């Protein structure tokens, strides 16, 4: 099978390739095509992958190209992990928002809207090309904001685009570990919401919900990442464990203050860190894989550092310093290609899953996956406050999609103004003006 990775010069590509190296079954990926607009980054990542594959006799063949149509043609799977505007764009998203006193995080609030406005037109063009050049391909989307981008692409690809994220996977794994579940794969995680806006409402093992035992034990609640971030009292009040990104909503004032005090925003940190990595790997005498490993360790250790600092949560646990989305991607490809049925938390079209949203809305829920794709399982309705947040943020996503389709600046202002974390229409107008100044890719707004 041929797997095309869009954003193939991206830093996290070796995670995906490393997962592929562990798969030796029939029907596996045998050819990987990396596509990126930056030939230098492609060269660097190709070097890392070559070192990863050393000594693996049946390692998937790797090639690289800057020609998008060539990369897509004949693909069986397309993994999309593009970053429109690069990390410089992310740093600008954060800076412009913080200057107005609101959150500029990559996927949440003003920063997520700005990133979405830049990314949706590009993602839709990619989806249309896939439909034309590789109509039988399945697209696995990791491009952020993942739910919004998946919904944009679904207008061309229907159910053949599926969004993935490592946050629900990591959250479920941490809860299972704290509860002493020996095999987390045997636990069913009752998780519902949108991408980066979801809640674990139960964790069932052999038909029994173990989450009440966690919520009743302050010691257990304080022993893992989300318990430290949100506090035991708040988790008990919710009766659920939120995705870590909900810290930006529940503790927004503290998060914004911490981000404004930070020496660098997250985007600026990653921009500078990755610039050093790519410069280092350009030296032919450097071990590309060792440089990548060292950089990744630093990246993971500093993840959401400002939130942990504002909550007094301390350093990340060592067990949490590894990703997980590459394992989800591999499990998803296996399930579809080989009909290896499994259950995964994915971003898919709602259909009739959440009655408060229409059928085309992309949500993040457990899905049964087989050769015919991902099918959301039936879930209980969300409680009132969660329903309000989900509906409000989905309404904002729809305004972003409308602005990207029509080029309407007024609609873009509306998207910012309606977001729960933007507190004034006048701030929304200033945000649009600020982003238009720094992002040439938003020139289509008029």
Give the topology, please.
Blueprint: E1 2-6, H1 13-21, E2 31-35, H2 39-53, E3 61-65, H3 68-72, E4 77-80, H4 86-99, H5 109-133, E5 138-141, H6 146-157, E6 161-163, H7 167-178, E7 187-194, E8 197-205, E9 208-209, H8 211-215, H9 218-221, H10 225-230, H11 232-238, E10 241-242, H12 247-250, H13 252-261, H14 266-281, H15 288-301, H16 305-311, H17 325-338, E11 342-349, E12 362-370, E13 373-376, H18 384-406, H19 409-418, H20 425-438
Parallel strand pairs: 1-2, 1-4, 2-3, 4-5, 5-6
Antiparallel strand pairs: 7-8, 8-9, 8-10, 11-12, 12-13
Helix pairs in contact: 1-2, 1-17, 4-5, 4-14, 4-20, 5-6, 5-18, 13-16, 14-15, 18-19, 19-20
Explain what this protein looks like in three dimensions:
The chain is an alpha/beta fold. Helices cover 51% and strands 15% of the residues. It contains 20 helices and 13 strands. The chain has a six-stranded parallel beta sheet with strand order 3-2-1-4-5-6, with helices on both faces. Strands 7, 8, 9 and 10 form a four-stranded antiparallel beta sheet that branches. A three-stranded antiparallel beta sheet has the order 11-12-13. β2 (31-35), α2 (39-53) and β3 (61-65) form a beta-alpha-beta unit. The model has no long low-confidence stretch (mean pLDDT 94).
- Helix amount, in percent? 40-55%
Strand order, main sheet: write it out. Answer: 3-2-1-4-5-6
Radius of gyration: 21 Å
End-to-end distance, in Å?
Answer: 43 Å
Class from secondary-structure proportions: alpha/beta
């Amino acid at each position: 099978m041929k797997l095309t990775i869009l954003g193939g010069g991206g830093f996290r590509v070796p995670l995906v390739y490393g997962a592929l190296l562990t798969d030796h079954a029939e029907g596996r990926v045998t050819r990987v095509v990396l596509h990126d607009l930056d030939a230098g980054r492609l060269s660097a990542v190709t070097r890392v992958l070559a070192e990863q594959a050393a000594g693996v006799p049946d390692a998937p063949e790797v090639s690289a190209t800057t020609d998008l149509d060539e990369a897509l043609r004949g693909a069986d799977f397309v993994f999309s992990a593009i970053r429109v505007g690069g990390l410089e764009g992310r740093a600008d998203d954060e800076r412009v928002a913080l200057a107005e006193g609101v959150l500029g995080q990559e996927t949440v609030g003003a920063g997520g809207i700005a990133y979405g406005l830049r990314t949706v037109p590009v993602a839709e063009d990619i989806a249309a090309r896939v439909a034309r050049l590789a109509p039988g391909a399945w697209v696995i989307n990791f491009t952020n904001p993942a739910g919004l981008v998946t919904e944009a692409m679904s207008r061309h690809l229907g159910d053949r685009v599926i969004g993935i994220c490592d946050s629900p996977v990591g959250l479920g794994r941490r809860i299972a570990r704290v509860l002493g579940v020996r095999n987390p794969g045997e636990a069913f995680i009752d998780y519902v919401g949108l991408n980066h806006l979801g809640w674990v409402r139960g964790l069932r093992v052999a038909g029994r919900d173990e989450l009440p035992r966690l919520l009743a034990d302050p010691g257990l609640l304080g022993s893992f990442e989300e318990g430290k971030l949100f506090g035991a009292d708040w988790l008990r009040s919710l009766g659920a464990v939120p995705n870590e990104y909900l810290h930006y909503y529940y503790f927004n004032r503290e998060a914004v203050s911490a981000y404004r005090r930070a020496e660098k925003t997250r985007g600026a940190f990653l921009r500078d860190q990755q610039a050093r990595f790519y410069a280092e790997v350009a030296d032919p005498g450097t071990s590309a894989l060792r440089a990548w490993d060292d950089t990744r360790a630093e990246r993971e250790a500093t993840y959401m550092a400002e939130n942990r600092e504002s909550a007094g949560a301390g350093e990340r646990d060592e067990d949490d310093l590894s990703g997980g989305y590459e394992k989800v991607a591999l499990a998803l490809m296996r399930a579809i290609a080989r009909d290896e049925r499994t259950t995964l938390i994915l971003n898919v079209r709602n259909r009739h899953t959440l009655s408060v949203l229409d059928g085309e809305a992309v949500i993040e829920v457990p899905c049964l996956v087989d050769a015919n794709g991902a099918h959301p399982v039936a879930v209980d309705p969300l409680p009132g406050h969660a329903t309000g947040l989900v509906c409000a943020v989905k309404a904002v996503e729809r305004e972003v999609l409308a602005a990207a389709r029509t080029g309407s600046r007024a609609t873009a202002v509306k998207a910012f103004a309606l977001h729960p974390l933007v507190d004034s229409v006048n701030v929304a107008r200033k945000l649009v003006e600020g982003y238009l100044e720094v992002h040439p890719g938003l020139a289509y707004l008029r």
